[in-house]
C-alpha cells in the first residue's frame, strides 16, 4: 500500500520523474552518438527510450510513443536556436511538452484506485453486516486492513488486465 501511495505525490513529483528520465536518456543517446546535441534520428530514439522508461516506472496504462511526424513538428517548436538539433534544455522542454497528456491519464487512474477502492471496500463491509456468519467475521477485521486489502486487490486486477492486453 505504501508503494502505491508513493506514486501519488502530485505535479512536482511527476515533473521530477520526467526530468530524471529525460536527463538519463539524453546523456545515453548523446554518449552513443558522440555529438553534443541530438539530430532528428537521435531524438526519435530518445523519445522511444523515454516512453519505455515512462511505461516501466509510472503506474497506469502504457502509452504509445508519438509518430515521427508528431516528433518532427514538436522538434520545430522546441528548437529555439533553429540549428536543426536539440540541446539538453530544448530536450527537457520537448519531453515535457510531449508527455503532458500522459500524466492526466495516470492521475485519473490513480484517483480511481486510491479513492474509489477504499470507498467500495467500506460499503461492501457494511453490506455484509446482516449476512449470517459473514457479518461477524467482517466486523472483526479492522477497517484499515480491509480497505488496504481491497485496494491492493484492485491494483492487482488492474495490472493483470494490462498484462492480458
Explain what you see.
- Residues 66-101 form the EF-hand domain.
- This is EF-hand domain-containing protein.
- InterPro entries: DUF7874, EF-hand-dom_pair, EF_hand_dom.
- With 165 residues, the chain is mostly helical.
- 76% of the residues lie in helices and 0% in strands.
- The protein is built from seven helices and no strands.
- It has helices at residues 2-6, 11-33, 40-57, 68-78, 88-127, 134-140, 143-164.
- The protein is rod-shaped.
- 17% of the residues are buried.
- The model is unreliable at 1-9 (pLDDT under 50).
Topology of helices and strands:
Blueprint: H1 2-6, H2 11-33, H3 40-57, H4 68-78, H5 88-127, H6 134-140, H7 143-164
Helix pairs in contact: 2-3, 2-5, 3-4, 4-5, 5-7
Organism: Hibiscus sabdariffa
Protein name: EF-hand domain-containing protein
Domain EF-hand: 66-101
Quick one: biggest sheet? none
Helix-strand category: mainly alpha
Number of strands: 0
Radius of gyration: 22 Å
The geometry reads as rod-shaped
Percent of residues in β-strands: under 5%
Provide mean pLDDT, rounded.
77
Uncertain segments: 1-9
Helix percentage range: over 70%
C-alpha end-to-end distance? 25 Å
Number of helices: 7
Order of helices and strands: HHHHHHH
Amino acid at each position: 500500500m505504501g508503494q502505491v501511495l508513493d506514486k501519488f505525490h502530485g505535479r512536482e513529483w511527476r515533473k521530477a520523474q520526467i526530468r530524471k528520465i529525460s536527463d538519463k536518456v539524453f546523456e545515453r543517446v548523446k554518449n552513443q552518438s558522440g555529438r553534443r546535441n541530438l539530430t532528428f534520428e537521435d531524438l526519435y530514439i530518445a523519445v522511444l527510450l523515454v516512453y519505455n522508461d515512462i511505461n516501466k516506472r509510472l503506474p497506469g496504462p502504457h502509452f504509445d510513443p508519438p509518430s515521427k511526424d508528431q516528433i518532427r513538428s514538436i522538434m520545430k517548436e522546441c528548437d529555439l536556436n533553429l540549428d536543426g538539433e536539440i540541446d539538453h534544455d530544448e530536450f527537457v522542454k520537448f519531453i515535457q511538452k510531449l508527455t503532458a497528456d500522459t500524466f492526466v491519464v495516470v492521475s485519473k487512474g490513480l484517483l480511481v484506485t486510491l479513492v474509489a477502492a477504499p470507498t467500495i471496500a467500506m460499503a461492501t463491509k457494511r453490506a455484509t453486516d446482516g449476512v449470517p456468519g459473514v457479518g461477524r467475521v467482517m466486523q472483526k477485521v479492522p477497517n484499515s486492513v480491509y480497505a488496504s486489502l481491497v485496494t491492493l486487490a484492485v491494483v492487482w486486477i488492474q495490472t493483470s488486465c494490462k498484462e492480458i492486453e
